[in-house]
Amino acid sequence: MKRKTHTKPDGTTTSKPKRHAELYEEIRADIQKHGKSAKTNKLYEGHIKRGQDWVKRYTALQKNVEELWRSQGTGVSVLESDDSEAGAVLDPEFATCLDDVPVECTPTAIAMFMHEKCFGEGRGKSTVDQVHAAFLQHYNRMKGNKYHESRRFQRDEVKQEWVGNPVRSPEVEDMLKTCHNKDGEADRNHSRPMTMGDLQQIWVFMKTQCPDNMDVDMSLKNLGPKTKWLFWLAYSSVGMTIWTRNNESTLLKRKNIVLNPPPHPSGKKEVSGQYFDVNLRERKGWQKKMSRNEHQMNGHKFRIYPQPQTPWACMHTHLLNWIEHYEKYFLGPDQHLEDNDYIFPAFTSTWTTVNRQEPISSKSINTLINGVAEAAGVKGAGEFTTHCFRRGGAQYRFMYAPIGERWTLARIRWWGGWAEGEHRDTLIRYLLDELHTYEEDHSDALCPAPIEPRSIVQKEDCGQPPNWFVYWCNTNFANSIQSIQTNLSTLQSPNYNPQSSSNLYSSHLHSSTPTHPPQLLTSSTPPSTLLGPAVMTHTQIAVLSSPMSQAPQSLTLESGIPMIPPISRSHGSKAWEIAVKDWQFPDPDRGLRRALKDWPKEWYAEIDRKVCYGQRKMVAEEFLNEYGGDKQAFCTAYPEYEKGFTALLKAIRKVHQVSGTRRTRQRG
């Protein structure tokens, strides 16, 4: 509503003052329009309308049922008996009790509508929650605060009318709890995340089905497979890169993609390389930010650069390839997508006919995702739903990307469009739910086969990152102590006799010093020992500083603390080769000062290193001794190497158990 203006004598204009009633109505209208997002308001309006229609149909049905019962019975309804429970008799106002202001039977009608949704139609608790929220908002906004939830629903005997919000009546609240508890504890229905490994597996499979050199121009029969392939690559890479929900990806339009974006609003120098911008202004999270004035100039845009290290998920490459293919074969010569054209339109089942004004349906995209995954042999095919790429992309950047490419929780919250007020525990559950569930799953405790470590920090290299971090701390701490001791020994003072004091101090300490070699901190040391203030006993200082304490060469500070360098999951099929190399040769750059095969036993006696050392040894000796270092023969015998170090290790163990060279661990 535009305000009326009038012109002053000096030529300036001012808004004409409004009457209080006018301004009040305008405020109420703004609350109605902007209190919730347009999408939420539309959803709630639908529930209200369906509720109003349902009570009318129900009233008509009950009238027919009652007439039929009377015609076949005694003419007196059991529901009209004197001892009938309150509410058991259908109120005369029931058919219209949801149309206007609430009446006595309004709570009953809302509760029955929720019951119909949950028990009659078999809907989940999310639908019931929406119905509950819709009616709660509906009455909160009716006639000022007269029916607001802050007031108990009751009859005002003075004015002879009902006040308060009927949704907060015990009848409706009890029904809400009943619907929540209908099936007991709900099964986990989180979307299975689409991992980088899944995308890579699909990429390899589809390369065999639709090679890059497939000629569409020469054969129309190739158009469908090629279109499907390029559509999949673009759609999956979009979801994996900017973490869109499937419905957000399907609604992406050409106007959301800016191929020649303006400079960054900060004015900072652009990084060299090609890029384009993607605008997700309508994303759910950004809408919430904007509604609270938390949006930024660039907060809803993503700058997309090539990602050559993960070609199966490179949005920059695949989205541009898809647009080029779409325009060339489905729009005609020299034709381009218009601003309101969908990037991912609806196709026929043959992928040769398109409706550019309609986005691909949720059912079709779900069928595509799970069908492609099943054809490629991806484990868990059929479990991918609307959040599969969003969860997979976020989890990858949080904990699975190579070291140096992982993101902070703050960046993940921003990139995913989560609200600033989103509780961090909610976000962590979103990222770590599967890992936590799998790690806490002990259903296979009776399995006779050795159980692989499951801890989140115990990757394929059995917890090495924590170990090498501990060793690094020990090395630097011990070296610092040694440096301090050296500096102290050079101090001279007129009142200080270094020789006599040193002898007295040393003799006193050495009398209580154990004769066995000094023990260095390992990963079993409590975290507080490493992260808290450094406090050492006299004995520890003497052991580190005294020239009389002769430690074995394997544990001297000069030789360095032994460690097994970690092998990242990102090495994939090359991981076993790194393990063999570490077994045969030292690698000082990675902290391996001596080849693993030359390690003395005390170096790997600690339990974590012992397990990891044994795994490296098993793979290396299998390759060197059983296959004579023949890479081709080894890879042929163990194709599991392509899946990573852990998969290869399991395959070797299985062969050893079958051949009798390895016994299954006895438990109990």
From TrEMBL:
Keywords: DNA recombination. Residues 1-21, 492-527 are annotated as: Disordered. GO terms for molecular function: DNA binding. InterPro entries: DNA_brk_join_enz, Integrase-like_cat_sf. It comes from the Eukaryota. GO terms for biological process: DNA integration; DNA recombination. This is Tyr recombinase domain-containing protein. It comes from Dendrothele bispora (strain CBS 962.96).
